[in-house]
Amino acid sequence: MLPDKNVTAGSVPRTLVISPNWIGDAVMAQPLLQLLRAAHPQRPIDVLAPPAVSPVWRQMAEVDQVLETPFRHGALQLRERWKYARLLRRRGYADAYVLPNTIKYALIPWLAGIKRRVGYKGESRHGLINVMHHDETPPRPMVAFYAALATAPQALQDAARRAALPKPRMAVGAQQIAEVLRRHGIDPARPLVAFAPGAEFGGAKRWPAAHFAGLAQALLARDGATQIALLGSPKDQPACAEVAAGVAGGALFNLAGSTSLAEAIALIAASAAVVANDSGLLHIASALNRPVVALYGPTDPDHAPPFSDMAAALSLRLACAPCKQRECPLGHQDCMVKLTPELVWRSLQPMLPLG
């Protein structure tokens, strides 16, 4: 999507936020927008985001307009960035917050002539970023990492300040939810529980499909009226098909690859509870304040936890975790395999509505 030509320099100054490329990171960057809006209540905030991530930003109240990047993934495309920057220049941005750490995205606000350009050090970005932040060691949790850009570089973020940060927040309208439920044949009068068996990062982050199936059977045994939606991208179709094959009877909807991200967001908003690996859909559920059970194996639950009022972050915290590897380097994936359906059911059951 090209910038709106009706918005020109000379009107109210605007803020540009350049989105991360990952869905979960975009969600966890949302508190930064809350802080920017509090600092400048009248200043519109535009977000420049990849098409795959833009539906997330459209569900955030602080965003005035979402602009979709026209660039190919991984390509510098210097001429195309220069042309796009000329369009952005007309919108009269007072500042830009560059959330990806690459030089490619730091080029855009510099080429657009935006005077204040805020971001982390990243790759070869001196001059392109002129309000330069540096991360702490060990790295801050993701919400605090992005929220720090709203303050002066090197500002202290002690535990009390981090605890006081706003939580990621998204909202979905009732009509949007009703339309998506109808489109996929889901009964709004019956409870819906969403499972997210996928994880874009790699197989090590995925709870076994047989475990998801075992949890589904426990749900259906408790209340046969429960509907279960399996959500994910086309890449998650094999994992979700394996889950579905392990569930006998019941209203199970395998929707992996069959919904847009916007539809998946609406289905999560309609859910009584969500069970998810450490993934973008987990963080969407958290930002929608759904009851959520988050499953962590090779990643650190303290680095990117759920923020729902009712949430359980489950990790066995084995000696080999968090290894942060895409595939288990030891070949056994004990961090997920030994996290049994019974353990997850113990956390999920109290979150469910009485049947």
Essential attributes:
355 residues; alpha/beta; Rossmann fold; 2 domains; 6-stranded parallel beta sheet; 14 helices; globular; LPS_LOS_Heptosyltrfase; glycosyltransferase activity; EC 2.4.99.24
Strand content: 15-25%
What composes the largest sheet?
Answer: 6 strands, parallel
CATH architecture of the largest domain: 3-Layer(aba) Sandwich
- Helix percentage: 25-40%
CATH-defined topology of the largest domain: Rossmann fold
- Overall 3D form: globular
Compute the CA-based radius of gyration: 21 Å
Distance between the termini: 45 Å
Arithmetic mean pLDDT? 93
CATH class of the largest domain: Alpha Beta
Q: Could you name the CATH homologous superfamily of the largest domain?
A: Glycogen Phosphorylase B
Arrangement of strands in the largest sheet: 3-2-1-4-5-6
Q: Give the SSE order as H and E letters.
A: EHHEHEHEHEEHHHEHEHEHEHEEHH
The tally of strands reads 12
Number of domains: 2
Q: Which structural class best describes the helix and strand composition?
A: alpha/beta
Helices, by number, come to: 14
Which residues form runs of ≥5 with pLDDT under 50? none
Protein name: lipopolysaccharide heptosyltransferase II
InterPro entries: Glyco_trans_9 (IPR002201), LPS_LOS_Heptosyltrfase (IPR051199), RfaF (IPR011910)
Enzyme class: transferase
GO molecular function: glycosyltransferase activity
